[in-house]
Amino acid sequence: MGRVQSAVAKANKRLTIQLAAALLAGSTLLSSGLGLYRDRLLNGLYYDSYPTGADAYTVAFIIPDFMFFILVSGALSVTFIPVFNQRLAGGNKKSAWELSTSMLNFMALTTLVASVLIIIFADPLVHYVVGPGLDESGRSLAIIMMRVIAVNPFLFAIATVITSMQQAIGRFTFYALAPTIYNVGIIIGAVFFTNGITIFGFQVFEGGIMGVALGVVLGSILNLIVSSVGLLGLGFDYRFKIYWKNKGFRKVLSLLPARSLDQGADYFNSIVETNLASRMAAGTVRAYQQASTLHTVPINLIGVAISTAAFPRMAERLSQGRPDLFKKELQTILRIIIWLALPAAIITFFTRGYLANFIKLVVIH
């Protein structure tokens, strides 16, 4: 066990902003590539032969993703990391670990309730909110898959708190690896689970597009496992307890609502647009989702990667009382993002047709 911890600690050592940004950009590129390949597989299997199923699969993600974004996602990292860094910078590790374990348990409980509610109310959520235009078979399939994928907010909430702790102290190796593993799980579902699952000669699952939903759950579990490995060697003192009296924890809770509303407002557009797309021809929901995915690739590759790498250091500058260094580093980061984003946007614009053709081509017969 000692050797494993030593190896993990060596792999997950603190990185400079430049190295962290390069690592995150590289992992984002790999994850995006796997995501395009994943979409190519799914479209090859279902887009032409079963567009209703492809739409149902896409619709099934909307509410679980919305709950994750509004409760956790960017809201947690933006509010948690500065407060966590303040505790560490002040030498108060005990308070920092109490804050971390409180957030982990609080988010786990909150998203567990959300996941259960999604399972219970999947029928009206699909029927009236995200997929009113689907036909009866499409709605039934979307409801079943939504109940399977409903576990995602719970698993991702735990993983996000764990990776936010690593991000806060400048350790990005497992933070960068986890999303890639998530896509691998979905690919496994598309390649293997769609043909059915047989154990000791007994078929326990018949296959079909539901196999991809099982792959999503597998990817979420693998994502959590990889994220958790990154905790080895950090000295995290976990307790099955919420420290309600911890000032840092209460401060994070006070900051969460505003950021969550901002995240929710952004994602609310997707709910409305999916609702409208479901009323159109079969396959429209899937096509819309694919276009949205493609347009976010440059954003994630450049803007998100660099800002994620820089955010902990900039929060640390403020906690040190050095706004001068904060402003200097912010200006440098903005210049880098602009100079990288402009050519990336131009390249993406002129190659959009090739990318769309890549994920649309039928590859499995």
Walkthrough of the structure:
With 365 residues, the chain is mainly α. The chain has one domain. The protein has 13 helices and two strands; from the N terminus they run H-H-H-H-H-H-H-H-E-E-H-H-H-H-H. It has a two-stranded antiparallel sheet. Strand 1 (197-199) and strand 2 (202-205) form a beta hairpin. Helix 2 (17-47) packs antiparallel against helix 3 (51-71), helix 2 (17-47) packs across helix 13 and helix 11 runs antiparallel to helix 12. The longest helix is centred in the N-terminal third of the chain and has 38 residues, at 93-130. The protein is globular and about 60 Å long. The relative contact order is 0.16. Residues 361-365 have low confidence and may be disordered.
In short:
It is globular, with a radius of gyration of 21 Å.
Write the layout of secondary structure elements.
Layout: H1 2-11, H2 17-47, H3 51-71, H4 73-89, H5 93-130, H6 136-149, H7 152-168, H8 173-191, E1 197-199, E2 202-205, H9 210-229, H10 247-277, H11 284-319, H12 323-350, H13 352-360
Antiparallel strand pairs: 1-2
CA-based shape = globular
Instruction: Round the Cα radius of gyration to an integer and report it.
Output: 21 Å
Oligomeric status of the shown chains? single chain
From the helix content, strand content and strand pairing, which structural class follows? mainly alpha
Total number of domains: 1
